[in-house]
Design a protein that fits this description.
Elements lengths: L2 H9 L12 E7 L2 E2 L6 E2 L23 H4 L11 E3 L4 E7 L18 E7 L8 E6 L1 E3 L9 E2 H7 L4 E5 L7 E11 L16 E11 L79 E4 L2 E8 L2 E9 L16
Parallel strand pairs: 4-12
Antiparallel strand pairs: 1-2, 1-5, 3-12, 5-10, 6-7, 6-11, 8-9, 11-12, 13-14, 14-15
This protein binds 2-acetamido-2-deoxy-beta-D-glucopyranose (NAG) (2 copies).
The site of one 2-acetamido-2-deoxy-beta-D-glucopyranose (NAG) has 6 residues, from loops.
């Protein structure tokens, strides 16, 4: 199956009820102006016929290429969002629908939120961390997780994540790699126990920085590669992050966010700017192709039931050279 066809399927949105509460970015506001649902976002592939939806399941294999920009993260979106240094971007994370009523991410998925920036296409060690937030208030009760960026901040704020384009950043094409990490099963390591382990939700947004900035990104990290099994930010018991002594060991009330330190050229603070209305779809529609465990399935529908037409194997291919995205008719 042609990559373009898979991509076309991936940019349409799916009207489905999902059992699990996972998440990805549905839209981006630039200085409060919505750029339109799905625009500029390398949406993850669908992961099965209804009632399943986007492959918004977590990536847990730290060696997988999907750690970079999620499943099909190598496929360009036809739109690239134009920004200037100093612009305030707001990402809209959702699960089922782009609405305030949407649950964004399951209440149990406590963990940090991070944003990286890389030239597009990425090269070795090109992802630079520009924002992060982790555990910011300890829980008071035994086994209470405290306040985390994913649940107490982003979920509580209807899925909104704020980031600001670095001052003076040189013009060019970049990928913003935004990431939520669910640590609710991170007291086990995925390489030892694949049923559990930390859950990563990376999602990439294509931006073109314009203007006459001169600031270049320093060296950063690679995805995959930046995170290691067993490191403190990846192996962590959220229910030990409490003021009260827990019975579980090892137990710590501090949490070290994984990856490098935030680049000194990034803004130390991000603010929530006033947001204009959402433009574009807020719900999703049926789809006819999906990818699960690298198998691409193409189907037609008889009523609501998919009839499989063909399958093929998908292999991500990241070009080392920037190619202009193919616009859609
Ligand atoms: C998403 O929105 C559609 C259309 O309004 C609605 O039918 C559906 O129940 C919503 N899904 C969830 C899980 O809220
Ligand atoms: C971004 O937000 C900051 C803080 O509120 C504000 O000072 C700045 O003017 C905003 N940038 C733009 C381009 O609006």
């Amino acid at each position: 199956m042609k990559a373009q066809a898979i991509f076309a399927a991936a940019v349409a949105l799916a009207n489905v009820e999902l059992v699990q509460a996972h998440t990805f970015i549905w839209g981006v506001w630039v200085n409060g102006v919505d750029q339109g649902t799905g625009r500029g976002i390398r949406a993850p592939a669908y992961n099965g016929p209804p009632p399943r939806g986007y492959a918004n399941s977590p990536v847990k294999d730290l060696t997988s290429i999907d750690m970079r920009c999620n499943v099909l993260g190598d496929k360009q979106n036809p739109y690239t969002i134009k920004v200037q240094p100093g612009d305030n971007l707001t990402f809209d994370w959702h699960h089922n629908n782009r609405t305030k009523a949407d649950d964004v991410i399951d209440y149990s998925h406590h963990g940090p939120a991070l944003v990286y920036l890389s030239p597009d296409p990425p090269t070795e060690n090109s992802f630079v961390k520009i924002w992060e937030k982790g555990l910011y208030e300890l829980g008071a009760e035994p086994f209470s997780p405290g306040k985390w960026a994913t649940t107490a901040d982003i979920k509580a704020n209807n899925g909104l994540m704020n980031v600001r384009i670095p001052a003076g950043l040189k013009a060019g094409h970049y990928l913003v790699r935004a990431e939520l990490i669910g640590l609710h099963e991170a007291d086990a390591s995925y390489d030892k126990n694949p049923i559990r382990g930390a859950q990563f939700y990376p999602n990439c947004v294509q931006i073109e920085v314009v203007g006459d900035g001169t600031v270049e990104l320093p060296a950063g990290v690679s995805f995959p590669g930046a995170y290691k099994y067993g490191e403190p930010g990846v192996l962590h018991d959220v229910y030990c992050s409490t003021k009260t002594t827990s019975l579980k060991v090892p137990c710590t009330t501090t949490y070290q966010i994984p990856g490098p330190t935030v680049w000194s050229g990034a803004w130390p603070e991000t603010t929530q700017v006033e947001l204009g209305p959402v433009t574009g779809a807020i719900t999703a529609t049926l789809w006819s192709s999906w990818i699960s465990k690298s198998v691409v399935t193409l189907a037609t529908y008889v009523g609501n039931s998919p009839q499989v037409v063909a399958t093929s194997t998908y292999q991500a291919s990241w070009s080392a050279k920037y190619a202009a995205p193919t616009p859609v008719a």
